[in-house]
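Entry for the shared binder. Reason: the reviewer on the internal report wants the predicted structure included alongside the sequence.
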Amino acid sequence: MCAGGLHKCKMQEHLCKVGMHMCAEGLPRSKVPAHLCIAALHKCKTWGHSCNPLVHKCKTAVHLCKTWLPLCKVLPPGAGRRGSLVSGTLRPMRFHDDCLVIDGHTDVPTRLWEEPVDLRKRQRDRQVDLPRLKEGGVDALVWALFLPASLDPEAGREHARRLYEASLEHLVPGELEGARSAEDVRRNAARGIVSVVFGLENGRPLPLPGMIDECARWGVRYVTLTHFGSHEWCDASTDESRHGGLSAEGRDLIRRLNRAGILPDVSHVSDAAAEQVLDVSKVPPIASHSSARALCGHPRNLSDPLIREIARRGGVVMANSFPPFVDDEAAEALTEREASLAEERRELSARYWDEPGPVAREWARIYADRPLPEVTLDRFVDHLVHLIELGGEEHVGIGSDFDGIHETLRGFEDPSKFPDLTDALLARGVDKGGVRLILGENFLRALAAAEEAAD
């Protein structure tokens, strides 16, 4: 049964070995696709009935090889080696340093709009800055342009523009730069530059004339279809159903996103809406920051059937590190805390748009005085392992939600802790090839698929 697949694996392995040889002195990360092909070839030889999905892994790997080859040809020997300088000293390369690491969801733009800072310096009032990204070996992260559910479409579009403009002002040439494609991310990583990929969180303004085209011009690569509220064309997981999932207009918007090369993101949407996105979308959708409902019952998380179906369609589920989405005790405590803060929320929400910085600081103080139960990195890894068991390592990623959350996991407090996540996954028995996929390659594959499907 595996004969044809074995032949394909051998072909991909040969191409990957050529790429590895050409990149040997310039880009050590090029060994990744060769490793995947060789492992897949071995499995093809021993697991005949399992060959087909492994051939898919080979195809993914050879695509990575082809992407790296042009860079290998132009970079001088030794270029692109991961910055192994920490506190001015040279340390040995770790396995984590040789992985492409991508955080698929952060809320950096909102924090920059609320309170602008110099991201080149370590900041005390937020989780993401360049020093922490570099310490964590993070190659790229998504900056989500977050639109609160209370904003109508016109107001949402204007706020998205403000967030985008604030974001551009905080990029750092040569250190923190925008990336509009999967290839841009790889090219920047080879040069030691952290890539910023834009997402739009809450697609409520999409029906407005020109909005999808504007998102494409900004370099938005995915749109989270809604947030905590159902709106004119999509139902939310945390609100009443208005459409039984997607409206007819919502289905058409998914097709238009496909044509624009923008991924649909089913985090925050209702189960029915997610199922309908899977039916309509030509490209595999993602869930940019959702964990497993079987392990934590918050409705923001995904059910096992949805996780399996997203994986079956070739998509990626990216686990969210916000403690109430990871542990039931924290979720219950969050519900109680939010109920007790209804009066404060009304008062601060009325001031927010005129005084975003002071209001953000006041919320930080309020939450610090009412902490949630502690949740550890190990519990987060439980979710990742569960996602792997349901969908396979080729369909799992990370969307931390950093800078959009007030509480973090013990052991995964900010991007500098990504190496600890890598170590935890390895300790739980995830092989190195799988860890590489989870840390970033799966998300980049999804971006490339959207690019290829665009008109």
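Summary line for the report: Confidence is low (pLDDT under 50) at residues 17-55, 68-91.
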